Please model this.
Amino acid sequence: MTHLIGGEAVYKAIIEKAVDKAPMNFVFDATHLYQLRYDKGTKDGLNWITNQALHIVTTDKRYTTPDQELNFVYSTTEDYEKYWKFYYAKLPYLLFYAVTVIDEIVFGLLPEQIDHKRVRAYRRIIVHQVFRGVSGLAEREEKNSFNDLLAELIPDLIYTCTSCQAQIEPTVDDLIWFAFNNVFLCPNCKHDQLGDPTFRLKFHELD
Ligand SMILES: [Zn+2]
Model:
């Protein structure tokens, strides 16, 4: 069980400060991050399920082991489905946050690599939007699909190809390709725009 030195308010304040410092931090919610990582009173966080995983029987009234049961011992196929759903709905968000904090620290030591940091942050935003769509988060926020979420990013990324001079409006598929492959290819001539400092500046403007 995690003991919070300084208490809940201190941990929340630390997360809030970290989120404030993060680039493109509109995807993060400090309260939700706190709940996920530390809040013992919610089934929206990791505490109850990790505690059940560590203890064969749990007596905490918020996640008591049912009578004639042992935690995870007699799980059915349906239970496993639920565990996987929970895992994929919760963990990616926490990992996005963790990598963002790590990048801030590491790239703080490498100021000349600021473009690289911003491109990484932007790729994470795209993957995050895909995750929100796939995990059902977007649906709960009444957005239609991850296509719609990604389409919102496109107007800021229209560019003139530095190689063939064509005016290009990227597609959602282009964004996903960029996020997973770290190349931003012109559909006309296949030139990778990331080699162009002017193009990389676009990622500085998106906060
Ligand atoms: Zn081109």
